[in-house]
Amino acid sequence: ILNVEQSPQSLHVQEGDSTNFTCSFPSSNFYALHWYRWETAKSPEALFVMTLNGDEKKKGRISATLNTKEGYSYLYIKGSQPEDSATYLCASSNFGNEKLTFGTGTRLTIIP
Amino acid sequence: DTGVSQNPRHKITKRGQNVTFRCDPISEHNRLYWYRQTLGQGPEFLTYFQNEAQLEKSRLLSDRFSAERPKGSFSTLEIQRTEQGDSAMYLCASSSAPSGGPSYEQYFGPGTRLTVT
Q1: Does the pLDDT value for residue A1 go beyond 90?
Q2: Yes or no, beta carbons of B108 and A34 under 8 Å apart
Q3: What would you report as the CA-atom Rg of chain B, rounded to the nearest whole angstrom?
Q4: Pick from B48, B91, B109: which is nearest to A99 by CB?
Q5: Closest residue of A to B106, CA-based?
Q6: CA dihedral of residues A45, B102, A105, A75 (deg, nearest 10)
Q7: Per-residue model confidence as pLDDT tens digits over A20-42
């Protein structure tokens, strides 16, 4: 994997259902994996930063896991609510390099 | 100070004009970053500063683009002789890191949406 890739590109989920998306990233020289939530007309909001293989983080109904050996991360949302509608971006960074390399995002729409 | 701020939020300009955007980072954050997002893409790195020093520039940053952070606080991004391809969302982020060490989390502003007609 040379670039950061996210799937699916978009997703419609019924309110109350749970869902998850995938982020794949280059595993060589990996430093950190970031998840952001970006609502229209607002700033991208940092959700999680993970660095260690096997890391799992949780914030309310949202959680994320990290596999640095195979280069993927999952974001899970349990019991989706309308306020979860947003674009979810993941980005990776490497040792010795400050820049974040982003995927194209997963656009999530929660159907009431 | 509640976060990173950017001005203006929207800018419409005619091709060939110069534009300047401003970013005010979170107080005391020593690192400041500029990214650009075009339609259907994720944000792409443009440049970053540690204090007032510009430490890295992407190849995306052509000679029509210049960024400054003169006193190590706010930053400006200027685009000269704008082209339609410059139409994008320009995002600024800041972080705090020990001198010479890696930063951890970048906090983003709401962006400036540029439309070149």
Answers
A1: no
A2: no
A3: 14
A4: B48
A5: A46
A6: -80
A7: 999 999 988 899 999 999 999 99
> How many residues make up chain A in this entry?
112
User: Does A44 contact B at CB distance below 8 Å?
Assistant: yes
Residue-by-residue DSSP string for B37-71: E-TTS--EEEEEEETTEEEEE-TTS-TTEEEE-TT
**CA B93, A95, A59 angle in degrees (round to 5)?**
55
A44 preceded by a cis bond (ω within 30 of 0): no
Max Cα–Cα distance, chain A, nearest Å:
45
Task: Tell whether A26 is within 8 A of chain B (Cβ).
Answer: no
Burial of B25 (0-12, 13-18, 19+ CB in 10 A): buried
State whether residue B100 is helix, strand or coil: coil
Two tokens, residue B54: 């510009």
For the segment B20-51, what is each residue's pLDDT rounded down to a tens digit? 999 999 998 999 999 999 999 999 999 999 99
Exposed/middle/buried for B33, CB within 10 Å: 0-12, 13-18, 19+?
buried
A85 Cα distance to chain centroid: 14
* Res. A97 pLDDT band, cuts 50 70 90: confident
List the single residue in A32, A95, A102 with the smallest CB-CB distance to B42.
A102
